Amino acid sequence: MASEQGLARPWKTKRIQQILTSHLENQDMTTCRLVRRKFAVYLAPILFADIEVRFRTSTFSRPSRMAALGRIGGHVQAMTFKISHDKETFLPPILDPIMGTEQTFIYTPQRC
Fold this sequence. Notes:
Layout lengths: L3 H5 L5 H9 L3 H10 L1 H11 L2 E6 L7 H10 L5 E6 L10 E2 L6 E2 L9
Helix pairs in contact: 3-4
């Protein structure tokens, strides 16, 4: 039986990581992360490079979700926000309090 050290050793080489991950589905890589901490270290940058967040009003209200995003944030290279347009997420028009006219609002993302 292979030792735990021997099992994790091949993952240290980038080329072997690329070959192994090209043959694994995301679900399999996620399962491997749970097997051994070393696997989690090697697979996190691959699994979290491109993430998709479906926005709901409760998406960022739970501290545990914010903590999870904080842990994977260093690995994220691309993030896609998906926002459904329904009664819960629809914003009413912005009105000028004095004139009563509708104000246009265009959100410009800010870089930190």
